[in-house]
Amino acid sequence: MPRTAEEFLSPPSVPEDCYVSSSVYTDPDLYAEEEEKLLRRTWKFVCHVSEVPNIGDYRTHDWTGVPLVTVRSPDKKVRTFVNSCSHRGSRVVRYPAGNMKHMTCFFHLWEYDLYGNCTYQTRDEGYEAHGPTKEQAGLREVRTDTFCGLVFMNFDGNAAPLREYIGETATAFESIFGENDFEIFHLNRTHMKGNWKAWFLTNCDFYHEWGHQVNRSTNLTSPDYHDRPWRLNHAQGHGYTARKLDNEPFVVQYKNYKGWKNRDGLVLRGLQPGELVLTDLFPNTSVFMRTTCVRINHSTPYGPDHTVMEERGLGIKGESEADRRQRAKEFTQVWGPYSRNGAEDVAFVEESHRCQEFGANKYDVISRNEPIGDGLQRPQSDAYVRLFYDKWGDYMGRPANNPKNLMTAAE
Amino acid sequence: MPISDEQITRLIYRSCLRLDAEDFEAYLELFAPEFEYRISNYSVEIRKDQRWMDVNQDEYKALLESIPLHSKPLGTFARHANVYDIERNGEDRAKVTTFLTVYYTTPDGGTKVFAVGKYFDEVDISGDQPLIADREVRLETREVGIGSIVPM
Q: Are residue A244 and residue A382 in the same domain, yes or no?
């Protein structure tokens, strides 16, 4: 039965933690608050260590609008700095990646070493009277740490250490990353008109697999598809799905998709042929292990309705050209801009946003409940999405179902 | 009678027209048996060449046949190609370099540039008709918005 205007404007008739106000995806004030209270206080994925293997290797990136540069310093530690000259604020390093001996601002040629110290001020005698001295003009360093080869940064100096932040969720990938020496082979970026949370939660929403022809034919046809429980980290807001309750792997039937074969070769150490493991790290990093390759998915928001999704593929360092080619081939079957799933996923987010933006959809329903025993939930449950918004509410000090404390039509 | 440059050029343009029309069966008739197809680029971010699609004949055929089952972009693609160079390699093969611009038109009629790149084709000219034996779509554009399951 169609809903009346009043019913449409009222919250869904489900428990309060089972729906989300669409304003969390569209409201500019909420987004500004997210930057301050959440995104600048949690660990943000930067890159894989193989992107900066040598001293002087760097990657530039942004977070909450702040330009950053992550570089391997001469002591081999990976550091991150706010990529803005202490003088007049220009970006110091302007290219996406490369190798440098030092950082020179192209505006007035101030120079910084790879530890962020200011080492040169053009005609520095002009600063003798009032300063600043070079000692006072270093770049702002941002806390940076590495876990399993994944580089993260955090603006919040008081946040829990990275390892503690990842917590027990490390179980899902620590051994696999420990047993394989990974190296990046794929990167693509996509600007999308949609919210960063909507993208991340698409990664966490197994129910959306019904929207993918690949997943309908290779995953959902497996009789034991629903036997993998979500393993939730309530303290930190992370979650993963890996082995089934009997500790047997969930095996994807790739051969069920026309033109594909099962993944029996080039299996990553720690995984079984066909095995799929997915880890979601709050607030927006997903690590997928799909038998032969790893996908790291992360996004950078530039506002409530502009998200840059970044997708990386990892293979084995030093492998033969033929093996790398096969691994990359299998990666891009499912992921990447010309893959079977890539365009579909972006469309899911953009189409939802289109309706949320001007109020055609007031609430997201996240009420799926599929218990599997022992308090655990099956993969197509919304248990993780609910946990995400519970955690979001903790950081924001607002409930996601009514973040602006608006009166409902019913009230 | 040897294959002329004009026949080779027409082959490349036909491949664009047939792909624009999503007439995949007719499009595949332009390829030699055992061909390979790749979409590649150089990633400035990771400082490496990368392949975003890498398929052999059977895989490509299966991919094209599967497209109707997928949620592909709702609009249409139009390819604008200019054959820049044809370099003959003996009597059996020619290397063809073609500049490619792909436009995307939304269902409500707006058009934008989707991608820019080049076709690097190896053309089999040993028979009566030229056939594409190997195609590498080398992209300059690495940000392709929503992306596409439909090859370039």
A: yes
